[in-house]
Amino acid sequence: MAETTRSPVDPDLPFVLGGVPWHRPTRSGTAALLVLAAAILLPVRGLMRATGSSMEEGFMLLFPRLVQQGQVANVDFLHLYGPGSLDVLAVWYWVFGDTLESQRVFGLLQHVGIILAMYALTRVWGRGVALISALVAMFMVLTPIGLSALAWHGAIALSLWAIVFAVRGRSTLDARSRASWFTAGVLAGAALSFRPDLVVALTVAGAWIVWRQGVWRRVVAGAALGLAPMWLHLLNAGPVRAFEGMVIDPVFRLRPGRELPVPPSWDRIDGALQAVAEGVPPWWGFPAMAAQHQLFVWFFAVIVIAVAVPVVAWVRRLRGDVSDETTVLMVAGLFGLGIITQALQRPDSTHLAWVACVSWPLMVPVVHDALRARTRRAVAVVAAGAVMATAMFVIAPFYTYRHYVLHTRVALGNLPTPFVVERHERRFWFGDFFVADAASGMVADLDRLSNPGERLVVGPADLRRTIYSDVAFYWMFPELEPATYYIEMDPGLADAEGSSLADDLLTADWVILTNFWTGWFEPNASSDFGSNAPNQVIADHFCLVGNYNDALVLLYRRCAVGDGISPAVIGDRPPPEGGAAP
Which of 487, 501, 509 is nearest to 533 (CA)? Predict the structure, then answer.
């Protein structure tokens, strides 16, 4: 274990090395954190009103409520990730309510956790490098999915703080060291309960530092505690159902319908959601490569930097450098390299940012150290920041700066908000007027016609291609029970021959089908047609209640004997609020 004679209350000693800086905060430290806080908060008002992903954000609103009701993921509903994020959000919603705003505040806290972890790790190079590294991380985590409280960001935040405490354990002595190693294990276990697929990245990064210190028993004990949500889930769901839902479904059954070409295509955007977003792109008046060209170049840049960081650390160790800086680069760099599979399986801007949010901030100290031997420290700090800022401006400005500017303009009132669909205290934001208008009409009619306790299914208009599902509509009707295991719909799962979707539909009272995603095309198996049995159930057993905006939304009710549905049930409605979609 590294010996240290430094005082833990020394305000210049970083937390990651054993310091307790809040005892005597310095002006420079306070100023750096204030700048970082201002940069994070500037677009938040816009992000709180941003267009949501109606499936991913929708199930992060709905699934924790189902958990509160005693339902079990992988048994009662499809969930491809660990139980940890649902359990934590269930508690969060119990305290603060399951509103869109509450969920997005939690998502913001997850993002801040990543940003502050990168600040803490790179603080060993000084506050200037730490601030720039944290700002690079900020552009990567705030822009791809807004404030949606997805499990990935919670898992990355927990993993990075596990690394912070592992490095802290290496740099301290006695009781503080033991507590830090145990805390690192708890955080790593909690991260795995959010996203079990991080096991390779955490194992590689953790093994390098833990085995060198001989503290693996304490770390494993902490990890066992942090994995408590997983142990409980295995008990409730059973190991077979849990393994099928968290491993077999996402890795083997889903992948053919979600993977994208590697590398990304040069002449087109492969991801359907990204193609839609780029159909009417936000303002960007600066010179830039085309969106698809940025993705192509960014893909290779993400791989090169993810590999370069641990390689630099390894070369430094070969030259006898066993400093704290080299340790941070090695451990955090190995973790950043371990998550690169996200960029390889689906290289759209979201997954590229999910990898870059770790390795790209670490390039700031790498560049700083390369320049430090040739110039003054302050110049090296500024130059390192300029290099990374320029790299993002040249390689991927649309997927970093442009969306930050967009949400900042909305926050400042320079752009109108998207279009809101509301039902009582629940609201969701859509980026297209006609989609929001159709959704508003359907919501108003279903609100008037449905009764508590009735059962609901939401899906795409053609159930032979379960490419996406607007889960937010389930959340907007908490008194209606989801009637299907496939609340989240994915190609190769809900539309597979022999899936339970057709049988689930037979138990439903209401069905909402949308044509929002009918034009979805990706060069993968999502374009293939699956079972027609669910469509046949709709044709045989359900009557059309409402057709909204040329079938953008279709509302069906289970037919009664001799049932006839009159167009008169479709009431007039005001258009959705909001202006032009930003």
Answer: 501
Query: 430-479, pLDDT tens digit by residue?
Result: 999 999 999 999 999 999 999 999 999 999 999 999 999 999 999 999 99
Domain that holds residue 547: 419-569
Are residue 468 and residue 349 in the same domain, yes or no?
no
Identify whether the C-beta of residue 578 lies closer than 8 Å to the C-beta of residue 420.
Answer: yes
Q: Where are the alpha helices (DSSP H) in 172-319?
A: 174-194, 199-213, 216-226, 228-237, 239-243, 255-258, 272-277, 291-318
Strands 455-460 and 553-558, by their bridges, are unpaired
CA angle 196, 229, 100 (to 5 degrees): 85
Check pLDDT > 50 for residue 570: no
Q: Rounded CA gap, 200 and 208, in Å? A: 12
* Residue 238 domain flag: yes
Averaged pLDDT score across all residues of the chain: 93
Closest CA to 534 of 493, 478, 480, 475: 493
Pairing of strands 455-460, 510-514: parallel
Quick check: is 236 in a domain?
Answer: yes
pLDDT digits (tens, 9 = 90+) for 551-560: 999 999 999 8
Distances, alpha carbon 338 to alpha carbons 9, 201, 210, 404, 430, in Å:
34, 4, 17, 27, 35
Domain boundary among 380, 408, 436: 408
Structure-token pair, residue 425: 């205290």
501, 358: one domain: no
Do 353 and 434 sit in the same domain of this protein?
no
With cut-offs at 50, 70 and 90, classify the pLDDT of residue 563: low
Q: 419-423 and 426-430: which strand pairing?
A: antiparallel
Which residue, 500, 406, 516, is CA-closest to 77?
Answer: 500
Quote the number of domains for the chain: 2
- Model confidence, pTM: 0.95
pLDDT at 576 (0 to 100):
55
Greatest alpha-carbon span in the chain: 86
Structure tokens at 395: 């390689």
Q: Does residue 438 share a domain with residue 376?
A: no
Phi/psi of residue 143, each to 5°? -95, -35
**What is the band of 12 on the pLDDT scale with cuts at 50, 70, 90?**
confident
